[in-house]
From TrEMBL:
CDD domains: ABC_NrtD_SsuB_transporters (cd03293). One of its GO terms (molecular function) is ATP binding. This is ABC transporter ATP-binding protein. Gene3D superfamilies: P-loop containing nucleotide triphosphate hydrolases. Keywords: ATP-binding, Nucleotide-binding, Transport. Involved in beta-(1-->2)glucan export. Transmembrane domains (TMD) form a pore in the inner membrane and the ATP-binding domain (NBD) is responsible for energy generation. Residues 9-236 form the ABC transporter domain. Belongs to the ABC transporter superfamily. The lineage of its organism: Bacteria, Pseudomonadati, Pseudomonadota, Alphaproteobacteria, Hyphomicrobiales. Pfam families: ABC_tran. InterPro entries: AAA+_ATPase, ABC_transporter-like_ATP-bd, ABC_transporter-like_CS, ABC_transporter_ATP-bind, P-loop_NTPase.
Length: 263
């Protein structure tokens, strides 16, 4: 609508096929500027496929993809992508891994290191600048990967189950760090997860996908929990439990369909 800011991400009637296989059908997803959206759905429903479409790595068979109001052609240079498996180079230190994208952009190694050190401090790794990935715990490597993504200052951050391999205590720490960083410098964020607790804790809105193939959006729930959020106490509140039940009422039957199809 005229006079309103452009959506950061706008997928309209997107259809994604791999040969004769339809992965996603009639996908309509809108993400506002600075909005935090979590996407949940059964295994194999095309959640990661949606992120690959937003980055421009996949071109839909039909439908429109717009980034801040402009049609996406080629790669989305306004996005940063944090994968489930962190892509740290084992022969580079933490600070050099964080600054790697800056070097690719033409900055000197020293300039990149100077910018990387404050980012390591932001994710709680001050003093770990010279450590190599094998000298870091799983949670610490995730923090390096997060800093590596955010140092590039993308307007849109895409996260594909980034904390799924972590234990529950480390995951909660990562939630707190991510929320603090997002609160300080709000960017549009699409977060893929299987964990409803995680989705409710982090997001402004949770989008629910149907079972695949030909997955589609079956509903969405606005998360009304106030910000800033205390991740340690949030999940015991009545409002959190009510939101969980509302999302599961949309997701539960889709999980059962997916299980029946796979078995």
């Amino acid at each position: 609508m005229e006079g309103q800011p452009a959506l950061a991400v706008d997928l309209h009637d997107v259809l994604i096929r791999f040969g004769d296989f339809t992965a996603v059908k009639s996908m309509n997803l809108q993400v506002g500027d600075t909005e935090f959206v979590a996407v949940v759905g059964p295994t194999g429903c095309g959640k990661s496929t949606i992120l690959n479409t937003v980055t421009g790595l996949l071109k839909p068979a039909s439908g429109d993809v717009r980034i801040f109001g402009r049609p996406l052609t080629g790669l989305n240079d306004q996005s940063g992508y944090m994968l489930q498996q962190e892509g740290l180079l084992p022969w580079k230190t933490a600070q050099d891994n964080v600054g790697l994208g800056l070097v690719f952009q033409g900055k000197s190694v020293e300039q990149a290191r100077a910018q990387a050190r404050p980012w390591l401090a932001k994710v709680g790794l001050k003093g770990f600048e010279e450590r190599y990935p094998h000298q870091l715990s799983g949670g610490q490597r995730k923090r390096v990967a997060m800093a590596q993504t955010l140092i590039m200052e993308p307007r849109i951050v895409l996260m594909d189950e980034p904390f799924s391999a972590l234990d529950v205590h480390t995951r909660r720490l990562m939630h707190r760090i991510l929320l603090d960083l997002w609160q300080a410098e709000r960017r549009s964020l699409i977060f893929i997860t299987h964990d409803l607790d995680e989705a409710i804790t982090l997001a402004d809105r949770v989008v629910v996908m149907s079972a695949g193939p030909a997955s589609r959006m079956v509903g969405e729930v606005k998360i009304t929990l106030p910000r800033p959020r205390d991740v340690s106490a949030l999940q015991t509140t009545d409002e959190f439990v009510a939101l969980y039940r509302e999302i599961w009422s949309l997701l539960g039957s889709e999980v059962e369909k997916s299980y029946a199809t796979q078995n």
